[in-house]
Amino acid sequence: MQESEIKSITLELLKKHVKYAESIYHDHSASIPGAGYFHSGAASEDGIRTTANYAYLYALLLTRTTDTAFNGIPRATVEAHLVANLKYLVNTHKSSGSYNTKSGTRWGKVWESSMWSSYAAMGGWMVWAQLLDADTQHKLNLMVSGEADYKAATLPPFEEWSDTKAEENGWDTNILSLARSMQPNHANAAKWDDMAKSYMMNTYSTLADKSDATVVDGKPVSTWVRGANLHPDLTSENHDIFHPIYQMVPINELGTSAVFYKMGNLTPPAAVVHNMLNVWNKVLKKIALPEGEWMYPNGVDWMVHDYEHLPAYSFLATYFKDADATMLESRTLEYMRERANLQTNGSYFGSLIDIGPRRESVAAQRLADAYLYHEFFGPGSTTPSTPSSFVTAQSGVTDFKDTKLLLHRNAQKYSSFSWQSKFMGYIGPNPSTYMHEPYVLVPYQKSFVGYYNLKDVATNATHITHTNQTAATWFTTSGVLSENDGKLTRFLSFTSLPDNNLVVYMDRVVANAAVTIVQEYGGAFDFERDAMSGAARTVYSASGTSSMPTQFTAFTGDWMNVDGKLGVVVKGGKGFNFGSKGIQAGATSSRMYGSYFTGSKPAAANEVISDKVVVAATNQTAAQTAQLSANVLRPPVGFGWSASIVQDERNYRFLVASNFDGDWDSSIELTTNEGAPILPVASQITGSTGVATLSQDLQKTVVHTLRAYASVVGAGTVQAVTGGLSNTCVLTNSGSTAVSTKVTILGSGGTFVSATTTVQPGKKVSASERNGSIVFKVL
After folding, report:
1. What is the distance between the alpha carbons of residues 110 and 177, in angstroms, rounded to a whole number?
2. Is the pTM higher than 0.85?
3. Does any domain span residue 473?
4. Residue 430's pLDDT is what?
5. Fewest CB atoms within 10 Å of the CB: 240, 279, 385, 505?
6. What spatial distance separates the first Cα and last Cα of the chain, rounded to whole Å?
7. CA atoms within 13 A on the CB side of 173
8. Domain count of the fold of the chain
């Protein structure tokens, strides 16, 4: 988008929202002269934050437009209600007022009140001379100085685990920056300025900062920083998970402080952007999707589409001229407008709202922030990325060890697995090729893994151990969960395969005591189904074609496909069940279970109650999913191991074999239509079946690409092993008679090429595919 279009759409969305804001406005002049408030007026985040945000919204519209009405609301009404709102806020604040709020107490000088007062004061400052009387101006100054003094008296907190203080320190920079700019001659102005920088430096802070001698704003980083709010890999935790919202939001908070400095004709301090670009480039870009949304590899407990990350993109785009942020800002703004246009009352979210008017007000506040970033820092990059170039740049595997997350992105998919608090796999189709209706899956916090309900036993899960194996283009992770108060042990692996659209989940669940299973909810996926994501989804299965069911419905067969966006195959499951679950994480969704049971089923101690594989594939047709199902093989392996062979649309096969709780060595028996797959370890091939020995530590997984196959024609046995590349092999005849052997190799064009050779006793023969032919060489 061009700069003018971005600002025009942003103002359009803000103007439309006035109709909604007015629907929750309340006159309060009978209790406080000239006062009014939005929403509840209570002395709480829900009450004060909401009404303060609308002071900011109204002031921005009144000072940036000349409209005579906003979505049917006269300008005079907006002016009057802004003034009344500010009178309510300053007359009920602990530093400036003597009246109580609607909830019976005054507000201020508590957790987060620095943020509320910042936006209230910002609204007042924008219309200072035009609309505010001397009494309101005086009280607004008292509110600001009172909150700034309260915050300046406290050192910035820090917490690396579970509940980062990055977001809190970020918002606390706002009142200190605003006070410094609004009241430059105040006796405490220098203190506020110094403490604003201190909170900035302790927002995206790391342990490494404690030994960094680099001078920023007159002091070494090590002097400024008190402790870590980020892990060494720059990820953070909030709500006990890796939470993209809390990883991102300090960018907007710090950006707002930069605006406050500019409004006071001051240059924003360097501390504003401490570690910001590192977080953006090394963490947030890895989880940003080309439509502007996030991957949520650890799930989410707020609205999944609240668009509150828009101003983070806006600040990165305008302040740093970042090409990726410029593209993502435009995408996010487009989808926010599309969502808002579905509503008729000026709301942004309608029935999908999670926390009511507060969510609406925060969305308006963030839009206003984005507008001011463009006003103060100019346009974004003149050469923005494209969705496809962004996906290419971010493709590969990322191992966030500190938050126990693995991510994988390529042109076909994005996938992840989390061992952090919420144990879940995740896959989504890369939406860069269909930016309309891009939303497919809700990040359900039990995706793939699912759970069991047992009779008279609590439902829970605890991480015991896991091991990651990563490469540039794939990953696999294997581990153990203790579930249902230790009554069950789940061994599992999750593998995201290279250069294709597939992931493979395998598990083995063992009862540690006699239990009664009352529900199994395995192989779980949440599909979005509202107007923004294609409400009328089509479901394909072995049962046929249907619309997405509105209540839980059983489906026959071992595969399902939804809208051609995601195909799921389950082998060894209890059957598919799919139906409506209503609103999840602020999105209308329906949940699919690939292994579903309800009833009463006893299980003995040491009984294996699950031994299944779930294969998921993005952007494939129903016919392709049916073929994927037909091609999934489960070769026999030793006790405690699990193995699968899957075949992608290029005809590449992959062997995935996990040692859950078995011996280090396991025999495996392999056969396919093309013959016995040839592995990097030796296989003894008789007929079209090969027998090999796999070796792997506990909780680790073997992953092999299969492109070469061999079959013995007639009697005899040969030994086969790949020749260093998956499309080459070496055949060895240790016997006393010649063995005729057919070799089949998958060529680079996706077709199989076959030829037959005779391997003489005591000889080795290499085979390789070259230009569509098999070339043999006696070694």
Report:
1. 18
2. yes
3. yes
4. 85
5. 240
6. 63
7. 33
8. 2
